[in-house]
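User: What would this chain look like folded?
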Amino acid sequence: MDKNAKIYVAGHRGLVGSAIVRNLQAAGYTNLLLRTHAELDLTNQVDTAAFFEAEKPDYVFLAAAKVGGIVANNTYPAEFIRDNLLIQSNIIHAAYVNQVKRLLFLGSSCIYPKLAPQPMREEHLLTGPLEPTNRPYALAKIAGVEMCWSYNRQYGTKYLAAMPTNLYGPGDNYHPENSHVIPALIRKFHEAKVSGASTVTVWGTGTPKREFMYSDDMAAACVYLMNLSDESYGNLLGSDESKTGKFEPPLINIGVGMDVSISELAGLVKEVVGFSGDIAFDTTKPDGTPRKLLDVSRLSGTGFETKVPLKSGLAHAYASFLI
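Assistant: Here's the prediction, encoded as structure tokens.
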């Protein structure tokens, strides 16, 4: 990507989008297109099309989405499938109409089956039932992968779907009910520390294992992928299954390649926050998927390496929470 290229980051104020903006700005990209939800409602097809027609971005990072944890997914399933389908459909089609050079569609590791082999490879997509608690969101993201694939096959576009593992970092959502596990734990342990509580209760058994990636590492991977040579980038765009007979979607996992149990994670957050009490597990609450570890050999094969260890990242996240 040329340093003066017009780059649209959809969802620039979220965890993913804000990290991508920080990375782009640090790398010297000066022509970023950024719009808040109040300025541009991406669920509105007419408004989204008008924006693309007026601005003509060269590159698009599609990080806009309705996201949340188990509680939010269970409470608002209709919004999770509807809003995400609308956002991605409007942007992907407008990108095609306005001849965007490359588009990176950001999804989630929840697109893979609940009981997928571990670690999860890109070809495990659509091989089994999804985790019910976030199925509406996952199906929307799977539709986004298929839409990128379909536009590539029919129109010759260069749209790549990147599936990050569980992310955390500056700009995360710390809502007490609608947040993901790391921000939820940071808030819980911090409030317990401030109030002098003796125990922090964590949902589930503590045995499920999760992979976590610092948001700035994820952003570095995204920008790295968009800057690959035409040949290297093209190799990630999959193939036409009707011609090759192979299931090769334009999909790449973004993660660190290792995981920890929720119990271990809670212990790390407790240490970083400085809470001196005990941890209790509420086994009446759902665990979710038993394990979600991504196979990142495809990403590492491009030459990309992560830099931020989990404990260091948690310390950075907690510092940003305190601001």
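The chain has twelve helices and 13 strands. If you want, I can go into more detail on any region.
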